[in-house]
Amino acid sequence: MSDDALVIFTPSGKRGRVAKGTSVLAAARKLGVDLDSVCGGRGICSKCQVAPGVGEFPKHGLSVAPDALSPINAVEERYDRIRGLKPGRRLGCQACIQSDVVIDVPPESQVHRQVIRKSATERAMEMDPATRAVFVEVPEPRMDEPSGDFQRLARVLEDDWGIEGAEAAPALLRTLQPVLRKGGWQATVAVHDARDGRPPQVLAVWPGLREAPLYGLAIDLGSTTIAGHLVSLTDGAVLASSGLMNPQIRFGEDLMSRVSYAMMNPGGAAEMTAAVQAALADLARALAEEAGVEPEAIVEATVVCNPVMHHLLLGIDPVELGQAPFALATSEALALAATEIGLTSIAPAARVYILPLIAGHVGADAAAVALSEAPETREDLSLIVDVGTNAEIILGNNQRVLACSSPTGPAFEGAQISSGQRAAPGAIERIEIDPVTKEPRFRIIGNDHWSDTPEFGTPEITGICGSGIIEAVAEMRMAGIVDASGLIGSAEQVGSPRMTATGRTHEYVIHDASPSGPRITVTQGDIRAIQLAKSALYAGARLLMDEMGVERVDRVVLAGAFGAHISPKHAMVLGMIPDVPLDQVSSAGNAAGTGARMALCSIKARRHIERQVKRITKIETAIEPRFQEHFVAANALPHATDPFPELSKVVTLPEVSFNTGGDGGAGGGRRRRRG
Amino acid sequence: MSDDALVIFTPSGKRGRVAKGTSVLAAARKLGVDLDSVCGGRGICSKCQVAPGVGEFPKHGLSVAPDALSPINAVEERYDRIRGLKPGRRLGCQACIQSDVVIDVPPESQVHRQVIRKSATERAMEMDPATRAVFVEVPEPRMDEPSGDFQRLARVLEDDWGIEGAEAAPALLRTLQPVLRKGGWQATVAVHDARDGRPPQVLAVWPGLREAPLYGLAIDLGSTTIAGHLVSLTDGAVLASSGLMNPQIRFGEDLMSRVSYAMMNPGGAAEMTAAVQAALADLARALAEEAGVEPEAIVEATVVCNPVMHHLLLGIDPVELGQAPFALATSEALALAATEIGLTSIAPAARVYILPLIAGHVGADAAAVALSEAPETREDLSLIVDVGTNAEIILGNNQRVLACSSPTGPAFEGAQISSGQRAAPGAIERIEIDPVTKEPRFRIIGNDHWSDTPEFGTPEITGICGSGIIEAVAEMRMAGIVDASGLIGSAEQVGSPRMTATGRTHEYVIHDASPSGPRITVTQGDIRAIQLAKSALYAGARLLMDEMGVERVDRVVLAGAFGAHISPKHAMVLGMIPDVPLDQVSSAGNAAGTGARMALCSIKARRHIERQVKRITKIETAIEPRFQEHFVAANALPHATDPFPELSKVVTLPEVSFNTGGDGGAGGGRRRRRG
């Protein structure tokens, strides 16, 4: 009879012979099988649960005896009695291999598992986190061997867990001694190893065995809003999401006005840095509270942002980003102490990873979108547009990926629009205009009913959000209220009492509760602002298509929190994006945030995007003469009729053109006009 | 004719063949010869000066032709004209090898040179600094290759200097862009590579070529005083030295009272941390100002201190150090950002190295003394005593090294002494008492003359410093004013009007300018304080001698700023240290400071002391019963007469004993008394 036994692990298929009596956990480690364990085989953490097979396994040519594993022992019985063990499950650290056996490692017992998360995008989140929790029993201090508590801990990490040369920041050392004593020299420590050439770091420590997950923050730091997700580092689950306004708005609504603020005010950059760092700390605090997790268990963060926000976050004066050649101070990914970006409200020794920047105007947010959407993995040609105050545009396939950014301004976010507001309850987000009667109906955020139904009731209507204004302008165009040049017709021209003259231009009244309530209109200035924004977006996309040498793309992905709410049909009516079949337009939700979350959950994702960013061809819109050409050419509103009538009511109207003889309104002077 | 030539470098003796036409600098690099260069061979920094030999070199079997090197070229001529080149010197980057040649690299052209410094100890300082300055020409940013300024700099460091994977902290990135532009894309950068597994770090950047040295701070953080040296990282020269009181004194004079303060006051440890960190920043500022160097050129610091100060500096509550087993939070050397210990007044990205701790009561200051004095390199047995508020004691030879610390208290520093004061102008530092007349004469700090000479004048006399009180007590003993138990005799017993009764004890008046000036006396309480301190010191030394199994040592080294001023004879009269021949007692000056300076100047020194500390046998005095025994036994003042009469005036007096029937004064109750 042989002294060793064959063990086959599924689903990995890894196999090998081990000495009889070897525990399943030890066998898994020996064969490089991904089997979790926090307590290191002490039978207390239950992370190493396995499902042994019994009977015939023709695929493996194996017949497994019922006693292939040692009988359930006292540790397992106790665990089952107190905590409950699923039928057929064993603790890998207790069950010993007695003869040839097939052992299944269920997904929840794998560290590097792929977790499918139900979300807007149903994204598979691959788990390969940099920080993991391990349980340690630290030898007590002895006067005849006066090593530091941390050195004895580090030795255990090396001996028990194979973690070599672990270090600790002073912030961790400050908490270490009382925690070790409180836990009776048993502790759970969060060990960070980003496999980036730096020594492993102990980030946090708890007395005794801590079974709750470790957490991380995925932060999407936008010019206007800062969004954060609190994520479990065990399975990538989002426990809480929250957003707040970027407090830098008071220094300038768009990026270039903030750069100007820094240039013109000594200490201005530092002031903006302090503001945004404080906001991040607030956001982290709010997320921890919302999810009910202790802030000390948040041990990592990832940040994505545009280059100006990136530099301001790090305290780097962004002045160079305001002028050609838009030189970045640093472009590569950064791994820092979280306190270096003001994240003082989480674990004191927490780490932060900031994704790489692509170019002077194409940020880590675009890198995160590229990571999330991965156009380089597809044969078809994807145009990915992340719409915000700045639009990040990526065009690519498995041959080549291009990227640029385009200064759309904040109109798409409801800013600089007369009745505009950010997306909040009471804001008009959907609108339809009857092409015959010119009468509108709409829906507001926080109300599931259209305004022309009795169920709508009499809610407060506060303004128009970004997606609402796009629909409004597109519907006005399709209803013949606006001509191809963007000019709003008069009451006479349009044939509707909803048209009101304001000086030499006209506006369209969507809702009028005056004098007691708001009067919500679309003005000529609003149309011009949307035209400027959509021309910038379209011109950026066209520039990349020129560079790629294509006239059309296979699919369009709208990313960004706002992109999730844009009606693709209306976007194409406006000419925001190139025409593609409507079923080839999809929303990626907050792709930048998803990319941040992927980088948070996986070191592999970090390494992938670091490599990929170097491969992306960067196009600088600001100095490309063709960008101006495309911008001017894209000013018109191309579609007078619904380009997708099969999806909507079919109404064909004659093309209209309003010639008032004067200037049509704000911004019109710079644009090509119909004669 | 061969295409290559033999080149022999002296003093290294390195030799090899290089292609003719190779520059001397390139040949040195190829052969691994230590030849400095900041500008990287551009002929502007002059650091690579060499002295080529001409003629016969029988030792090498070589005859060097006069034209073995290429003729002096325009770059060298210009340099010589403007800056002056010593006769026979060439610029290694310009002179090319044309035939077999012997080239001497003068010490000032070596990076890793040994520099002999004139100082109290004439120590040879081996230069192997972690941070060096290199000159770079950084490619300008291009829009079609939008890498960060730092990434382009890092690439130049790799290509031109072989420095791979350099990183930069945000603090450096904040200054990078304006500096690169100011220097027209030429810059001098300070690159730190401690060869400790961490990536190289850029610590500072200057526009153009910077020829001034980089600087470092060697800080000896004592319980009572903080001493700092500003050191050139080019040659180890001390440009300025300064000290200030440790502001933590207001929380407790000795370490244990500070530990108590931390235990009894919530936030007390943090308060003490803030105080000492602010003091370090002040000290650095003062040193930079004194030496007239820009604070940004101070790129490194090393710190030595006892374990309590170590933990308080890092913000670690020292509570565990107040009770057995005196567990350290961390014991190994630390490499941190200087800002982590509050050093905010030097280069923003500066680094700090904190030497390892030896044990719970034996600190990095003792490690620094061990580094400086290196008993492990000697055959004879050295007893090294670093006298301060805590005495660090090291006993060892090339077989074995032992260490302990002993709580002497602040008496040796003039504290807790009735007329005591710190060493400052006006303080009595030397004293002699005539054994017949019992009249004293003394010298004060800041005055080169004895008080009984006309040149002494009428200076203000303010008190007695630490070395003064030791001499006073020893002289009183030898003059028969004090008996072996430490009791001061009365005027009658001693036969001197300088004896004054104060209650049931007596005091000896050294100087009396009352009522208009100070009255400086040695009281019975002062004698007791000195007895306690010296007993603790002696007991520690004896404990190590017991452990080593020896009854005598070969030599005694007195270290510490105070040790430098102690008269060895008087120390032995008091029984502070074991008896050894007087010529075997030496002062090592501020050995802890010297050790800090060695670690500052040399990575090799850091690695050496890290290894050595692990080899040292640690003895914990606080729990060793024999320590108490030795302490009690050491209370007496052993020498009634000058033990080294050949070095002094020979007067032999009968042994005296004063029996007053009562308690002799403070502390006396705990001690063994003569019946």
From TrEMBL, chains A, B:
Q: Which domain of life is it from?
A: Bacteria
| GO MF terms, alphabetically ordered | iron-sulfur cluster binding
- Domain 2Fe-2S ferredoxin-type residue range list: 5-109
- Name-wise, this protein is Drug:proton antiporter
